Every structure is written in C-alpha cells, then in structure tokens.
Structure prediction request, 286 residues.
Amino acid sequence: MIRLFTDSAANLPQNLIEKLGVTVIPFTCVAGERKLSGFTKDFGAKEYYALLKSGVVAKTSMINPYVFTENFENALKNGYDVLYVGMSSGISGTFAAARSAAEELKSKYPDRAIEVVDTRAASLGEGMLVIQAAEYISKGESCKIVAALVRESASTMNQIFTVDDLKYLRKSGRVCTLAAIIGGILDIRPVLIGNAEGKIVVKTKTRGAKKAIKALADEYELKVKDKTLPVGIAHADNEAGVNSLIAALKERGFTGELTVAEYEPITGAHVGPGTVALFFFGQKRA
Prediction:
C-alpha cells in the first residue's frame, strides 16, 4: 500500500483531493492579521487577492522537516510505503525539507519504500503530476516505479504564465524595481516559464493582457502534438483571463480534460492578483 503526499502548492481542488486519496501538507502564510493555509467559505480567493491589492503584504514560509517527518512516519507506522510528489526545489526549500525527513526515516523503516519526487513545478504543474501518480498507484505499480514514472513525466510538464502586476515578482527578486515601474506604465506583461531546473525565467514580454494570453496559447500549440492530453489553468482572481485562454486553446485544437484552479494563498502571494497560468504535457523543458 502506498500513501501519496503532496503540498498545498499543488492547487488541487478539494473534491479531487478526496477522490484521489491524497494527503496534502499545507504551507502557511500571514496576510495582515490573518494566518492562512488555504481558502475558506468565509475568506476565499476574491477576498484574499483584494487584500493584496489593497497593499497588504503576505509573508510566506516553507514547510519544515519536522512536519514532513510527522506525516510520513504516521503512514509508515500503519504499514504504508510513502510517496511525496512536491513543489519545485528551484523556487522553495520545501523539497529539501521533505528529502531530509525521508532520509532520516529510511534507516528507521528499512522495510518500507520512501520516495520523494521533485516535480520542478508548482501549482497545477505539480498537481497534474500528483494526479498522474495517483493513477499509477491505482494500477498497482510499486512506490519506486511510480516515483520513476512521475520523475520522467516532470521533464515534459510545461508551465507558462503571465502576471497582472510586476511588483509581486519584484518583491520575490524576479524583476528589478525599474522594470516593475516601467511595466506598470507601459502595460508590459512578462510571459514567464518554469525551466528544466524548476526555476522561473522570463520567456518574452508583451504589451497588454490579450497578447499575453495569446502567447500562452501559442506556446501550447507549439509544444503539444496530442491535443487530447489534459491541461491545467490556474489563476489569481482572473476569470476573464481564464475564459479567454480556454477559448484560445480550443481554437488551437485542444479537446482534452481541463482542470481550473485558483492559486492558493502561498503561491498566489508570489505571482500576485490577476495572474493566469497554463500547464500541459508537451516537449521536454529546456
């Protein structure tokens, strides 16, 4: 038996988490007087992103090794092998914390399999790989085999996104202050990708939201041969952008299964309100 773990940066909808039987270890952040690990009925994405727009700064932190140890060991004690499919090591120290916990437990539970997979992705790029892992597990594959298959798939998980306001990327060191100011004045929208190392890099820049959405769809058309494969779209309170992107994908032949999710508080704090991101299996990342 395998217990499948991920973290809340995977952005998986709650109904899908329950359906797949995934254990989600949450990140936390503090925004104003609120400590958040996710959205609730009383405080959802609209309220959170409105708070960020008002100038409130969300302070995020990684998951520490103790939390992973506690969760993993609980599964191991109950006879499960452990598989963690987690957020990119290129943008967070959380994967290193999970790996540290796994190494510590391997000597304590030598008869159990413990695997940690660096997706080199975040949001639904990570989440779609978690879904894939769950599907392999349901087919009876071993923990080691599932981990190997997901690691291979991770190299083909393409991630491309555009942001509404450069200041959030500036705060995380992605663009300089001058570029953020100029971008706001000229309505320049950076189009960014997650590279092979799982780091965020600027691919190109466009002027205006419509051209940015088109750039995302064009990347899909360029990188994907099988248009029946699943696609994920994540957004930070930007339903109009999502609808435009879905229409653009269909114009380019997309007929596969679509998962749409809102960025949860922690990843959302780094990309900022208005972000739209596209995730798909295609050519290997460079």
